[in-house]
Prior knowledge:
The complex is a heterodimer. Chain A is an all-alpha fold. Chain A is built from 12 helices and no strands. Chain A has helices at 2-20, 23-37, 39-49, 59-93, 97-101, 106-113, 120-135, 142-169, 178-187, 199-208, 216-222, 234-253. In chain A, helix 2 packs parallel to helix 7 and helix 4 packs across helix 6 (106-113). The longest helix of chain B is centred in the middle third of the chain and has 32 residues, at 103-134. In chain B, 72% of the residues lie in helices and 4% in strands. Chain B starts with a helix and ends in a 6-residue tail after the last helix. The mean pLDDT of chain B is 91. By secondary structure, chain B is mostly helical. Chain B has one domain (2-263). Chain B is globular. Chain B has a two-stranded antiparallel ribbon. Chains A and B meet through helix 2, helix 3 and helix 9 of A and helix 3 and helix 9 of B.
Amino acid sequence: MRGIVYCWAAVMRTKLAEQMAYRSHFALSVLLLIVGDLVVPLVTLLVYRSGASFPGWSLHEALLIQAVFALAKGIAFPFFFGMVGTTLSQVREGTFDLLLLRPRPVMMMAMLTGFDPDDFGRLLSGSVLFGYALSGAGGPSWQSWLQFGLLFLASLTILCAVSLFLSGMLFRWVGSSRVFDIFDAVTSFGMYPGTIFSKSLQNVLTYVLPIGLIAFVPASALLGREGWGVLWALVPAAAVLVLGALYWNRMLRGYTSAGG
Amino acid sequence: MRRLAAAIRAIGFATYKEWAAFRSHMAASLLVGPVLFLVQVFIWQAMYEGKETLNGLTYPQMLAYFGVATLIHYISFDFADWNLQMLVRSGKFVTFALRPLPHWLFALAQKIGHRSLALGIEVLPVMALFILAFGVNMKPAAPGWAVISILLSFLMNFFVNYCVGLTAFWLVRAEGVRRVFLLIKDVSAGVFLPLSFFPDVLQKLLFFLPFQFITYLPTRVYIGSYELTGIQLTLGQAVGLQAAAVTVAGAATIALYGAALRRFTGVGV
């Protein structure tokens, strides 16, 4: 465990030092991520201003879903999602072999190598939006906070599993940056109230392809709209993570390079 | 002139062949486009509950807006900015500085080839899906004006992106600037939401910026009515305005390209 923490600390130090060589670029990248994550909330705000709304959801409640989504990305992207970019570039260039040679688990090394300090910008935009949305949505009870905390872990679990699936896919679908578009498209279901989708799609998005768990379900729990039964949703989240890890390792076994 | 056309055709064809090897990357749009559109269908279905129009657009018109905007995005998609910045940063631009064809024309020819391939792999299949699976009315109100407007959008997107790419001649690492600018461009072009939803002050500003000519204006021309900041134009007037804006953008690009070349230094140049 101490070795893992040491690795993380060393990588974070190195990546930060690397970013400091291009400070204005780093500042712009962080700014971009902050602004970029606020685009969907801005669209929601403009639509609500025009008099339309998601039935049964006030502006602050709808923004809370998007805030939880941004918060989850703010944690998942720096720590796990970078492995998608790492796999994308290193498999294409043939340098992924270097990760195989290191005396640490390959999956962990792929995550570590993909660590990106820029992505903490998302955490900032998510926190600001979260505070704003919560200020207009009333004070949640401690039960709601507890449910939210557990479901937020499920949210991170889902994002980690998605990273594994996308990264694993890139061992075969070499060099395709379209995986990021696929991520954006599939997870866009999770940025809006689940109640706007048909009942069957809602069930699919909660229990089969648990995209709804990234933001909608945790936000609903925080708003006191869910009972304790919602914690059953942790099961599909864990199952998806296990499947993701199995898939990634299976795809890794199929990886071939110039080194054999 | 004939030799120039032959050169453009040859570069376009080579790009077409090169990218045909990566056609599965483009084909991902067959999943991405309809999935994003499905989300829009659910969003607007909920938003229009009990309402006939929102900012002057009916529900079918709103779906048509997003359907057409998606297709225009595929047709005019451009990465001249990324490509140029990569060439400048890596020093490979030197080889282009020595060629008897300006690089901006080379990049335009590449875009023509790249997007010709996309027509068969992305645009037409996604359009068929929108019509058959979602029942969206994708019939242009005035096909002639729609085609001209989309072609102008193709050029405008190229000129805007190329100008962003030219910043690489002045900045050490221009990637951050590029990404910020492209995000502003997409928001201001009406990719995420029709510009008529923006506050009046912003609409007035956006009317004079070049971005609306990339997505919003051609989409509205395709649907058959143009209105922004209270200004209503006929289709002919809207396309005329777009043509004027593209001419200005083209002239600005060529002027900026000349200034960039004067600044450029490389090994052997």
